[in-house]
Amino acid sequence: MSTIRLKNLTKTFYQKEGEVSALKDVSLEINDGDIYGIIGMSGAGKSTLVRCLNYLEKPTSGQVYIDEVELGSLNEQQLRKERTEIAMIFQHFNLLEQKNVIDNICLPLLIAGVTKKEARMRAHQLLETVGLSEKSKAFPSKLSGGQKQRVAIARALASNPKILLCDEATSALDPQTTKAILSLLKEINKKLGITIVIITHQMEVVREICNRVAIMEAGEVKEEGFVEAIFDNPKSKAAKHLIFKDAGKEDHVLGDEKVKDLLKGGKIVRIVFTENSAFEPVISNVILKFNTPINILGADTKNVGGIAKGEMLIRLPEDAKLASEMSAYLLERGLKVEEVEADVY
Ligand SMILES: Nc1ncnc2c1ncn2[C@@H]1O[C@H](COP(=O)(O)OP(=O)(O)OP(=O)(O)O)[C@@H](O)[C@H]1O
């Protein structure tokens, strides 16, 4: 297990066309055993952050501490050693196509000086851990995306890392395979006690397995904290944006154009229910009490860190007084009610 501390990290790329500030004063603390999500839209700086985290990219300023060792203070050899404790998996798996599964997993062990016999034994154990024993002799071209990622995870675990960095590791996978890989990562985190950092642009990935999350936009961390707290009550525009997009996703009620149309009418609010409250009585009661229909735009239940949460998007009537009375009524019933502003989308 391992603690990661980023302190006032900046990274500026100097190019002919000008400077790009990919990271601006990023400070984060990732605790032992966390499954920590770093989420943001394309260009937010996620990949730069993760490359700075293991010093594949040297930050322009600021410090990276792994278990209180500052990576900037290490020489090349020490840094290489430290890096063996930080493994990484990628969106496109990065397996060697000309080597079979077992040889792909053996490779980092052989490079580290482990004997061939030992490496093969360990590789077979790792294949079992990732549930792919029957594919030991297959070549990557014969594997599905999910199977390739399992091999990549086994290879990453070969060096007994303290930290596993996952850079968009499920972005190329279908939803069902994504779930299976995320549940494997969760198991690895629990059983082997490895701290996991997940870089993603998908809120559902964060919801599914992360305990904490940092939301990035334009090189900055806009919001950071426990996933459940941010899901219930997002404060920054960046968090609201990601959560709102996620809310409309599963029932396909809200396509992009449709949302823009809907935002033209009365206020849209997002309501979050816990396990102990149900959608229906509250919504029926509000309709009965105010004798006014409300438009339900989408509703579903989501798994937030293992807890079932209900979520609903409704449009309140255009009459501002009535809308605010309805909001107040919902709030009084202990629901989280949050207005979705047009500029959040
Ligand atoms: N080597 C580089 N040279 C110049 N600019 C770079 C370099 N790497 C990244 N950038 C710029 O830094 C910014 C952040 O990029 P980064 O790849 O970290 O974002 P990201 O959040 O990972 O995006 P994506 O999800 O699209 O990969 C972008 O404006 C990008 O163009």
From TrEMBL:
What Pfam families does the record tag this protein with? ABC_tran, NIL
UniProt keyword terms in alphabetical order: Amino-acid transport, ATP-binding, Cell membrane, Membrane, Nucleotide-binding, Translocase, Transport
Could you tell me which Gene3D superfamilies the record lists for this protein? 3.30.70.260, P-loop containing nucleotide triphosphate hydrolases
CDD domains registered for this protein in UniProt: ABC_MetN_methionine_transporter
Domain ABC transporter, by residue range, is 4-243
SUPFAM superfamilies, alphabetized:
ACT-like, P-loop containing nucleoside triphosphate hydrolases
A GO molecular function annotation here is: ATP binding
State what protein this is by name.
ATP-binding cassette domain-containing protein
